[in-house]
């Protein structure tokens, strides 16, 4: 009882104004940071030419492998291309990867998880075995194997990631839905004669969405890492496309003389990943609903 | 049973408990004073948020870290709130024992009942192993667990709800405490089992000469078991006195309303008399009597200042400006 | 019994049964034992008349909540029949089933879990109206206001979300939601047991008032005997899945016939401190519903049990009295 006391005492009607004020003035700091970082990368992705100081593919033989300076804050590569501009330009591809590699798993996985969690039965048993199978293999290894079969390239990478990735969303959603089904508001909806579609999409899905959306944010960060890894290995984006992993791969031969070629795109990957993670954390707070 | 003029074993003076929460301070308990005599059963009754459980936990300093207790808890001439932690550990379990609402969370699931009783016996009594085993069997017998010597080696999950509560009482009794604190011990139980446990506690109090403080939200439980009662509302004691007198003619408007809101079970399909509204929030200062907004007897003076506890009869106190008007009312059915 | 007479009871339950198969432990499986079966509801029959309240009382494991869920078809019974206005509702499907749902509604125990936290009160109530096409356009908002008036909530409650309300207020919202579809029967499963005493009284009064105003029939399920006397015309006492005694509430309270009913009444705490005693109302524990005792399930705890009680399950019959009781010894003068 001692634990519940402050909440008990706060069960008054006046709670309404409190929450409204809370939402406006106390935007959670992680959310704010996440929004700022991700918006910045989105801006870079949408209009790289507006932000980048140089043309990312323009050669400049007067400034080969020049270290970071005022003219080239991130330095230049072996062809004199501006690393800052190339990093900015690469964000277009990398954010595309973040979205395209995760959108199909998000939608398919959530729907599959919703139905399996709600209806159960043999589909659930089958799904359980599938999850066991998928989680016992290292994710990266399966994706590489699939891309190797389909051939290198971004589209094939999306296919490979989606074939495996939806399972994680489905597992997450299924668990949430099974818990939510126990709630009496779902029982009330059934007793009120609501259709199954209405119960699933209006009463269960919105309440199950929070962990899924949070996971999606993390997954986008992971997708960028994965895309960069595959780009580095030559299985993802193909040069001359500017992609962070490709940029890092380009710089690896010059690492001892020109560390900036690899390090700055690496920073971009880390920063973007942190941005999505913060956004996910913040979203978790924001979408948390009091019961 | 009711009139005892013995020296109180426990005296609580002006106890206050404040919780510091992210949303501000919550005064869960303020200015609570009470006494318990030897062999007496004191009921602490109130609705959720009234501070009854917090009061009980504060007596043994079993509060969460964000809580601050003030005032004095005098046990055998010593202030427990000021006592060093080492002294407190001696008191806990040995002199004052406690039982809880949910035995499954209070019992250790990986130890047998025998081991848990043994733990208490080793800590508090000087007995060899065989004597401890014999004492443990005796204790299970005492709390009415059949085939005690066999059940002793069971784990808590092998007991039913009522039997678990009995086992927890046996563990509490192991060190022969002089005061038993019971925090809603029957709230999670079915009626027929609640009845058994209450009767058991009553018998133990009488046979072992223990005193007991029983926290409950159920006035019926108070009527069935307690000698005296303290009624709490919004963190304060609003009325105290012998149970029969308080039930027959309450002198605080809240006690009056609470008794009337209880389904008496004596009338068929008659509307009850609820108390309108809800208890106040404790994270804001309360000016005047906390019950005033819901009170049928409210006067202007009630809203001006918190009414003090006043003597309203033999061994009776009430913090109500309408005490005289309530006394003039006919007794509550 | 099959004739759909105007005088037929609103709800008629006959020989209803519902079992759950529990998980078999690996050890049981190795020894070739069948999975244990919990017979939650076993041969339950009763009737509810229009505008009247049937109270169902019992302790944990007696099957009262399973019974409630069978009545609204949240669970499908294994056997027996549930007739609503003479129609067997267990056979209804599709549109007919939805029409039945409109007539029989449920109020739940947990005020915190029974409302969708993401729907405002107004959305929650209007959804029911729109789905069943009971109101359109501006009439929806008007009807929502009416419903809020009916359960004594302020009209501006419509714009607020469940977490902004106290337990008692949420229970009012749950009742308003049930009333939205204009039912003639409400199944209330422990609707006040999660609430404080003073708030309990508010909700009980609301039920009494609504019944009066709307002519509702009510099945009120509770473990609290004192409470049930305040709300119900008729009473059914359940123990381990069976009804042991059923009849007019007042008469059962003044002269209970089954030893278990007598024990329940004796065990309920009295509000009169003077009548205190140290005698237990009934000995023993509640048996596990997975392995109920043979014969009369109450016999191990019964003060007057005879050999026959261990052998044969007593049927629910009048046995020389005015209402049926499932006790071999009732009417024989032993009780």
Automatic annotation (TrEMBL), chain A:
<keyword id="KW-0571">Peptide transport</keyword>
<feature type="transmembrane region" description="Helical">
    <location>
        <begin position="97"/>
        <end position="118"/>
    </location>
</feature>
<feature type="domain" description="ABC transmembrane type-1">
    <location>
        <begin position="91"/>
        <end position="280"/>
    </location>
</feature>
<feature type="transmembrane region" description="Helical">
    <location>
        <begin position="257"/>
        <end position="280"/>
    </location>
</feature>
<keyword id="KW-0812">Transmembrane</keyword>
<dbReference type="Pfam" id="PF00528">
    <property type="entry name" value="BPD_transp_1"/>
</dbReference>
<dbReference type="InterPro" id="IPR050366">
    <property type="entry name" value="BP-dependent_transpt_permease"/>
</dbReference>
<keyword id="KW-1003">Cell membrane</keyword>
<protein>
    <submittedName>
        <fullName>ABC transporter permease</fullName>
    </submittedName>
</protein>
<keyword id="KW-0472">Membrane</keyword>
<feature type="transmembrane region" description="Helical">
    <location>
        <begin position="130"/>
        <end position="149"/>
    </location>
</feature>
<feature type="transmembrane region" description="Helical">
    <location>
        <begin position="155"/>
        <end position="172"/>
    </location>
</feature>
<keyword id="KW-0813">Transport</keyword>
<keyword id="KW-0653">Protein transport</keyword>
<keyword id="KW-1133">Transmembrane helix</keyword>
From TrEMBL, chain B:
<dbReference type="InterPro" id="IPR003593">
    <property type="entry name" value="AAA+_ATPase"/>
</dbReference>
<keyword id="KW-0547">Nucleotide-binding</keyword>
<protein>
    <submittedName>
        <fullName>ABC transporter ATP-binding protein</fullName>
    </submittedName>
</protein>
<keyword id="KW-1003">Cell membrane</keyword>
<dbReference type="Pfam" id="PF00005">
    <property type="entry name" value="ABC_tran"/>
</dbReference>
<dbReference type="InterPro" id="IPR017871">
    <property type="entry name" value="ABC_transporter-like_CS"/>
</dbReference>
<dbReference type="InterPro" id="IPR027417">
    <property type="entry name" value="P-loop_NTPase"/>
</dbReference>
<dbReference type="InterPro" id="IPR013563">
    <property type="entry name" value="Oligopep_ABC_C"/>
</dbReference>
<feature type="domain" description="ABC transporter">
    <location>
        <begin position="10"/>
        <end position="259"/>
    </location>
</feature>
<dbReference type="InterPro" id="IPR003439">
    <property type="entry name" value="ABC_transporter-like_ATP-bd"/>
</dbReference>
<dbReference type="Pfam" id="PF08352">
    <property type="entry name" value="oligo_HPY"/>
</dbReference>
<keyword id="KW-0813">Transport</keyword>
<dbReference type="InterPro" id="IPR050388">
    <property type="entry name" value="ABC_Ni/Peptide_Import"/>
</dbReference>
<keyword id="KW-0472">Membrane</keyword>
<comment type="similarity">
    <text>Belongs to the ABC transporter superfamily.</text>
</comment>
From TrEMBL, chain C:
<dbReference type="InterPro" id="IPR017871">
    <property type="entry name" value="ABC_transporter-like_CS"/>
</dbReference>
<feature type="domain" description="ABC transporter">
    <location>
        <begin position="11"/>
        <end position="265"/>
    </location>
</feature>
<keyword id="KW-0067">ATP-binding</keyword>
<dbReference type="InterPro" id="IPR003593">
    <property type="entry name" value="AAA+_ATPase"/>
</dbReference>
<comment type="similarity">
    <text>Belongs to the ABC transporter superfamily.</text>
</comment>
<dbReference type="InterPro" id="IPR013563">
    <property type="entry name" value="Oligopep_ABC_C"/>
</dbReference>
<keyword id="KW-0813">Transport</keyword>
<dbReference type="InterPro" id="IPR027417">
    <property type="entry name" value="P-loop_NTPase"/>
</dbReference>
<keyword id="KW-0547">Nucleotide-binding</keyword>
<protein>
    <submittedName>
        <fullName>ATP-binding cassette domain-containing protein</fullName>
    </submittedName>
</protein>
<feature type="region of interest" description="Disordered">
    <location>
        <begin position="269"/>
        <end position="288"/>
    </location>
</feature>
<dbReference type="GO" id="GO:0005524">
    <property type="term" value="F:ATP binding"/>
</dbReference>
<dbReference type="Pfam" id="PF00005">
    <property type="entry name" value="ABC_tran"/>
</dbReference>
<dbReference type="InterPro" id="IPR050319">
    <property type="entry name" value="ABC_transp_ATP-bind"/>
</dbReference>
<dbReference type="Pfam" id="PF08352">
    <property type="entry name" value="oligo_HPY"/>
</dbReference>
